[in-house]
Amino acid sequence: MSNPNWDRLWRSAGIQSVGLFIVAYFIYGDQPKVGASPDVLMSLYDGNRMRILIAAFISGMAVLNLLWFAAAIRSTLRDAGQDGWGAAATASSAVLGGVLFVLIAVGAALAYKIAGSGNNTFTSGMNDVAWSCFVTTSFPRAMLIMAGTLGLWRAGMISNAVFGAGVAAIVLVLLGGTTWATSGIWAPDGAYSRIISPMIGIVWIVVISGVLLKSSSAVRAPDRVAVPQW
Question: Mind listing the pLDDT tens digit for each residue in 57-109?
């Protein structure tokens, strides 16, 4: 693969990550809510064992692409003289990737062995842990959005309007870390934590991926070289 094609591929890793996460979500199915009954837990984890394990593999690939996306941000910001923000993107993506891998491992373990063991209390507890981990991902997600948005804005690569939308995204995603209500939209398994906050992150990734691809095209564009006339 030529260098230009490889450069374009890894700068589009954010879009690839979003696509893989969406595919994994539909394969996995709906996560049982906090305090779900043993029958509901068994129906998903034990009854759809192979489907969940396939989704775990696809989710792992999605996380890897997310880390490549953060690396592309770091590279772009370093070239633009904003390596401090690039380092923040690397740190936040590392934390986010670690928590997401824990989430994947919990779901795979429940499907592979735990749910079928008959220990309903432990199965329910691990399912609740998964929701708690998902809520805590709000913090590294917000930091990644902050690093990318502020860094690219300081580098003059995004407009003030995009910067304003990015700041709003930071605040809205960060609010996801407060979703600890016992029920309703503000619960760990409520609509804000489960749907609204992730969708904000997805839109941000797609927009920033477009910025990275545009900057990659600008770098690859050959400079005109004056040919001496004899």
Answer: 999 999 999 999 999 999 999 999 999 999 999 999 999 999 999 999 999 99
pLDDT digits (tens, 9 = 90+) for 1-49: 555 666 677 788 999 999 999 999 999 988 889 988 888 888 888 888 8
- pTM > 0.85: yes
What's the token pair of residue 168? 């709003």
Q: Which two tokens stand for residue 73?
A: 């941000």
User: What residue segments make up the domains of the chain, in order of their start?
Assistant: 3-220
Buried b (16+ CB within 10 A) or exposed e, 9-39: ebbbbbbbbbebbebbbebbeebbbbebeee
Which bin fits 118, alpha (ψ -120 to 50), beta or left (φ > 0)?
A: left
d(Cα 13, Cα 79) in Å, to the nearest integer? 19
How far does CA 219 lie from the centroid of its chain?
A: 26
